[in-house]
Specification:
With about 475 residues, this protein is mainly α. It has four domains: about 40 residues; about 110 residues; about 40 residues, no CATH class; about 220 residues, MetI-like fold. Helices cover about 65% and strands about 0% of the residues. It contains 19 helices and three strands. Strands 1-3-2 form a three-stranded antiparallel beta sheet. The longest helix has about 40 residues. The chain is elongated. About 10% of the residues have low confidence. It comes from Thalassovita mangrovi. InterPro entries: MetI-like, MetI-like_sf. This is ABC transporter permease subunit.
Length: about 475
């Protein structure tokens, strides 16, 4: 802060500090607070008021549909008892007449109408949403409503009256529940519980024996993610997906480090100055292309008829195409390629500050190349390695486009895909927010643990420029 004040004065320093605070508040703090609030709010469809609103909607829709049949019953009286064609000139098929048209004669007021879903659901004995282990609850029993339903065996007029009564009761109850829910706190941790709740995995005895022999399922069993109870197999699918994604992200980070450390060393310490520019251009130019285009380019390489399979088939090395899009290793390679610069440049920036005389001195003292790297280069480059590993791990853990495009749904989804599906596919954004916030916390813990293991502090990152 003193350096800022000395260099830019109070006014510019104050503006800079305010800009940083505003940036942090708008882009970091407020989104996380919003995510926490949504994660601790039960989904609307789980509220009792939502069940009442659904009942009101079904009763209203039932009335609208029944009115069309009421008109058809009344119309023949002014037409000499002749049948009136239904909408579009087509007769309404009956469920009990083998698809034959049922004439709407004037004296058939008690005839059974076709099945109407909303009328079938217009029942005050609607089940309320409750968590696992809680007793079942029903709308009429909990809120003292009369047991009403729309009886399809009654005349249309009576069915309309029944639907109207149900709709009125549901509307009054909905307004009352809405007011009560607005005046009480609905915060809950049940959305986080969805991450750890076990799900029944229906398996035949043969399939069960096969899956129990798999190494991955054995490991899940050892850490409590998969277990057997009363002869049935249960699995904590949310935690299983989270654990698998984190392990994959760590493996991607290790792969990227193995690839990028020799590159950074070569460019920074083992290349004449006149060649460094060409090596840097070779690293940077491919990344001038849009990321999605580079990912889709990989599909042309690993496809069943792609470059790699075509070359192997032409050489006679294989007789059938290799299903690369079913292999997790393919995703590892593509993610490492996609984010390679985030690993290379932090190490490169730190290695360029190393005095080459230290390397020469170590060699003169008889140190082997391995010992030179272990005792001289790696300790000096440790902040760059830490920054590169953290950046690559966080990007890999949050990767969405690479697993989605490369696997094409043929592999287990990554946790980022699960969060996306909760928000946009299943419209379960409250659980998705809980997943997202929990995932962020877990990643931060892993990063803090990594920094502790590397013996690096935040001020050490200042060496990475």
């Amino acid at each position: 802060m003193k350096d800022l004040l000395r260099s830019y004065g109070r006014v510019l320093t104050a503006l800079f500090v305010l800009a940083v605070i505003g940036w942090g508040a708008v882009l970091i703090v407020l989104p996380q607070l919003t995510m926490i609030e949504r994660a601790m709010t039960p989904p609307k469809r789980q509220l009792d008021s939502s069940v009442a609103a659904t009942l009101r909607f079904d009763a209203s829709t039932c009335q609208s549909v029944l009115k069309t049949y009421e008109v058809e019953e009344e119309a023949p009286a002014s037409n000499g008892g002749l049948a009136i064609p239904s909408m579009g000139g087509m007769a309404i098929p009956s469920m009990n007449s083998g698809g034959m048209a049922v004439p709407s004669m004037g004296g058939a007021a008690g005839a059974k109408r076709p099945y109407i879903l909303q009328c079938d659901r217009a029942n005050t004995h609607a089940r309320l949403v409750r968590g696992e282990g809680e007793e079942k609850a029903y709308l009429d029993e909990l809120y003292d409503l009369p047991l009403l339903s729309v009886d399809d065996a009654r005349p249309i007029a009576e069915q309309l009256d029944q639907a109207a009564k149900i709709g009125a009761l549901a509307d009054d109850l909905y307004k009352r529940l809405l007011a009560e829910e607005a005046n009480r706190s609905n915060l809950t941790l049940s959305n986080f519980g969805a991450l750890t709740s076990p799900k029944l995995i229906p398996l035949t005895p043969e399939r069960k024996a096969v899956e129990q022999a798999q190494l991955g399922n054995r490991l899940y069993g050892l850490i409590g993610l998969r277990f057997e109870k009363d002869g049935e197999v249960y699995e904590r699918l949310g935690l299983t997906n989270l654990t698998r994604t984190l392990v994959f992200a760590m493996m991607v980070t290790a792969l990227a480090l193995a690839i990028c450390y020799p590159i950074a060393y070569k460019v920074a310490l083992a290349t004449p100055a006149n060649r460094v520019v060409w090596l840097m251009l070779g690293l940077i130019i491919p990344y001038a292309i849009v990321e999605l285009m580079r990912i889709y380019a990989w599909t042309a390489i690993i496809d069943n008829r792609g470059l790699l399979n075509s070359a192997l088939l032409w050489l006679g090395a294989i007789s059938e195409p290799i299903q690369f899009n079913r292999m997790p290793g393919t995703i590892f390679v593509v993610i490492a390629y996609t984010y390679v610069l985030f690993m290379v440049f932090p190490m490169l920036n730190v290695m360029t500050t190393l005095d080459k005389n230290q390397i020469d001195a170590a060699r003169d003292l008889g140190a082997s190349p391995f010992r030179v790297h272990r005792r001289v280069i790696i300790p000096h480059a440790k902040p760059g390695i830490a920054v590169g590993c953290i950046a690559t791990f966080m990007l890999a853990a949050g990767a969405f486009s690479v697993p989605r495009i490369i696997s094409r749904g043929l592999q287990a989804e990554w946790f980022s895909q699960t969060i996306y599906n909760k928000f946009f596919e299943s419209e379960n954004s409250n659980v998705g927010a809980a997943y997202s916030f929990a995932y962020t916390l877990v990643c931060f813990v892993i990063v803090a643990l990594f920094m502790w293991l590397m013996r690096t502090r935040l001020k050490d990152f200042a060496r990475v420029r």
